Amino acid sequence: MLVIIGYVAVCLSVFGGFVLAGGHLAALFQPVELLMIGGAALGAFLVGNTGKVIKATLKDLPTVLKGPKYGKDTYMELMALLYELLGKVRKEGLMSIEGDVERPGESPIFAKYPKIASDHHVIEFMTDYLRIMVSGNLNAMEIENLMDVEIETHHHEAMVPSHVIAKLGDGMPAFGIVAAVMGVVHTMESVGIPPAELGMLIAHALVGTFLGILLAYGFVGPLATLLEQKAEEGTKIFQTIKVTLLANLNGYAPAMAVEFGRKVLNSTERPGFLELEEHVKTKR
Q1: Contact between residue 248 and residue 257 where contact means Cβ atoms under 8 Å apart
Q2: Spatial separation of the C-alpha atoms in residues 273 and 275, rounded to whole Å
Q3: Is a pLDDT exceeding 70 seen at residue 174?
Q4: CA Rg value for the chain
Q5: Distance set, CA 200 to CA 107, 177, 195, 207, 209 (Å)
Q6: What's the Cα-to-Cα distance from 158 to each of 52, 60, 208, 260, rounded to whole Å?
Q7: What is the DSSP string of 82-121?
Q8: What is the mean pLDDT of the chain?
């Protein structure tokens, strides 16, 4: 919703200011210029990226119209799930969660937390390291290093669409100049026509530069920034799981391990200590 509001604000400010200054909107309506800029940008996007990157970018673009993927409710469910799993381990031993870890879709524990159970990446990350803990073949330091590598890989992949869109935005002013130059070439071909018509052709040519800059800094650039922020937010849930499991591996009780994980969260999503404690109790 904020994306749409922001775009409307950009258009109203730029085009509204132009009208208030005495300009005529009809002069800015240049579909051919848009074709040149948009077509060149699309072509460069296809040439400069692999199929995997293009697919990931197109998949992520619709998410800009949605709110944060992981909100406070999701993190509270995550904390409650981790607390229940680690509590079972503390009471019955690591082997007691083997069935839950191997088949989370059939686990009665995971079924109580649908927001987490529906996220394939989160479940896979969590169960993979719980499985390693059950096997007992790695110590806490080795598991932490492995977690760091996986989180870094996930973060790198999540950041790719934002980098691609940022580069696309960086090229838009140049494509606008290309469109403007083409308009100037057409104008020079028309030397000899009445001055009024010649001035109109020059104005049309300049619109190309205007559109390239507007699209870059008013539309495409902000999208790249938003995608980057969403990628950063998406990494936080894996860091939370990491810190919680490592705290448990280092001998802390489930309640304290979950508290370690709670401290990792951003202030906007972090539940209070008593609020989380009450939520955990209700989920038992």
Answers
A1: yes
A2: 5
A3: yes
A4: 27
A5: 71, 18, 9, 11, 15
A6: 12, 9, 33, 25
A7: HHHHHHHHHHH-GGGGHHHHH-GGG-HHHHT-HHHHT-HH
A8: 88
Residues 2-15 have a mean pLDDT of 91
Sequence-separated contacts (24+) of 188-197 with Cβ below 8 Å:
none
- Model pLDDT for residues 68-85, shown as the tens digit of each residue: 888 888 999 999 999 999
What pTM, to 2 d.p., does this model score? 0.83
User: And the tokens for 69?
Assistant: 């993927």
Residue 153, pLDDT > 90, answer yes
Q: CA 256 to CA 79: how far, in whole Å?
A: 11
* Poorest-pLDDT segment among 22-36, 237-251, 253-267: 22-36
Domain boundaries, the chain: 26-284
Residue 176, judged by CB atoms within 10 A of its CB (0-12, 13-18, 19+), counts as buried
Place of tokens 């760091």: 148
Q: Is the CA virtual torsion 106, 102, 234, 261 positive or negative?
A: positive
Task: Give the residue among 82, 152, 184, 165 at the shortest CA–CA distance from 123.
Answer: 82
The most distant pair of C-alpha atoms in the chain lies apart, rounded to whole Å, by 92
Q: Count the neighbouring beta carbons within 10 Å of the beta carbon of residue 260.
A: 18
- C-alpha to C-alpha distance for 91 and 208, rounded to whole angstroms: 69
Q: Kind and range of the H or E element at 155?
A: helix 140-189
Name every residue whose Cβ is closer than 8 Å to that of residue 240 and which is 6 or more positions away in sequence: 75, 78, 79, 261, 262, 264, 265
pLDDT at 182 over 90: no
Distance separating alpha carbons of residues 270 and 268, to the nearest angstrom: 6
136: CB partners within 8 A, 6+ apart: 94
